[in-house]
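Box 3.1 A note on notation
Throughout this textbook, protein chains are presented in two layers. The first layer is the amino acid sequence; the second is a token string describing backbone geometry. Keep the layers aligned when reading.
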Amino acid sequence: MNTRNGETRAVVVDDSRFMRTLIRRLLEEEGVEVVAEAADGVAAVETVAEHAPDVVTMDIEMPRQNGIEAVEAIMADCPTPVLMLSAHAEENADVTFEALDHGAVDFVTKPGGEVTSEMPRVKRELVEKVRAAAAVDLDARRRQSTSTPTTPPVATAGPVARSRAPCPDGSTVVVGASTGGPNVVEDVLAGLPPEAGLRVLVVQHMPAGFTSRFANRLDGRSGYEVAEARDGERIGAGQARVAPGGSHLVVDDDRSGQLRLRLRDGDRLHGVKPAIDLTMASAAETVSGPLTTVLLTGMGRDGVDGMGAAKRAGGTTIAQDEHTSAIFGMPKRAIEAGHVDEVLPAGEIATAIVTTLRQ
């Protein structure tokens, strides 16, 4: 990073002068140096090229050039981690995911202009996301795309066909991810053959209002029936559920081949809700069949204790490797704690999940 005196250097992009001023104040109060501002996408590209910041906060709807077009231009001309600022509304979720597809590393909901009791939390999340985005390895996505593809082989007669047989009844997978995770999660689920008959739980650190659209994306890009989890529902083979933003997802029963899911309120854990740790730990305690837990890219230590619980319960644990992780934080801590059985590039994880469960 191009830090000076240990500070993260940021460029703030928004067509609202008020919002630029607010974001600058929130960041600078926590030691993030705002080196410049821009009011539209064209100016953003020029400003980033001039100041070479560690991170850019980017609005989506702007004149002359919108946020998605600006992200594409920045990634082409002067690759820099971009954190999208999205209005907190479901109708903005699809365009936010489009920005991630075009190179943005993460997003955060845009702070409201009014001073409320929620402002300290909003400020903390903004600053944490900015610092996490600044630490992202932009080359990881390229390395991820060139690692071994996860697409399962075409079924033929003989041994290859047998490799596509169902996994044992009650086979369960819990996938946890944070910064840089959405695209990796999509690739992992796309690589899981429907014939394996897995039950899949996904915990991606993401705010409420976005996880339902994320589930829709996964549903369209994988062979599994994917939806946002609902309290009290049961899921069986071939189904996957995404933990809703703002709720913890736990498993409290495993009967007749189906998991019963519960949504819990409660406090944030590791500053996040949903927390990977709670879902993995509950699965380790409840799931009666084979269990595999997977920890992908992200900052912090969420998922470390959950992986430990799964390993102690006899489950298999897999972590994404440093080479393909946008941020090698959560996986690294789980590895250092001795909770990980296999460390793999993103493109090999889906195959490894099926292999471990069949064994």
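The first helix runs from residue 17 to 28. The chain has two domains: 9-136, 144-358.
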